[in-house]
Amino acid sequence: MAKQADYGVTCVTYAKDEEHIESVMVHPITDEGKFGAGEKWIRQRVLQAIGKRKTFKTIVKTKDGYKWGASVEPTDAGFLTTEPNETTRDNLGELPEC
Fold first, then answer.
1. Closest CA relative to residue 21, chosen from 68, 85, 65, 87
2. Number of helices (H), then strands (E), in the chain
3. Cβ contacts of 7 within 8 Å, gap of 6 or more
4. Taking the CB of residue 91, how many other CB atoms lie within 10 A of it?
5. Does residue 56 lie within any of the structural domains?
6. Partner residues linked to 60 by β-bridges
7. Average pLDDT taken over every residue of the chain
8. Whose CA is closest to 5, among 96, 61, 92, 73?
9. Residue 11 and residue 24: Cα distance in Å, rounded?
């Protein structure tokens, strides 16, 4: 996998309301496009990193390995999404729960 982002996100943990992301599994991506060991980051940490111009993309497991998914973006309301809009909930596509 060629490097497409600074970090990859492989799964999510939702809060009790099942609408808001509590944390995500984040993997640093090397210049060669390989991803390192995952570490759970709370949503606020991801938002702070995006504010510092770090990029995030989802990584989806397939039968043949892994493939890049969509870019992770912040919403104006402070949520994480792969579909920027005016929603008041988190949305990272079809990532599995951690």
1. 87
2. 1, 7
3. 26, 27, 28, 29, 49, 54, 55, 56, 57
4. 18
5. yes
6. 67
7. 87
8. 73
9. 6
Q: Report if residue 87 sits inside a domain.
A: no
Q: Which of 36, 43, 46, 51 is nearest to 22 (CA)?
A: 43
Query: How many Å separate Cα 98 from the centre of its chain?
Result: 12
Q: How far lies 65's CA from each of 19, 22, 59, 68, 69, in Å?
A: 29, 26, 10, 11, 13
The model's pTM: 0.88
Please tell me the distance from the alpha carbon of residue 3 to that of residue 63, in angstroms, as a whole number. Answer: 21
In-domain check, residue 13? yes
- Give tens-digit pLDDT for 10-34: 999 988 877 788 999 999 999 888 8
Residue 41 domain boundaries: 7-81
Distance CA 73, CA 60 (A): 17
The two tokens of residue 42 are: 């709370």
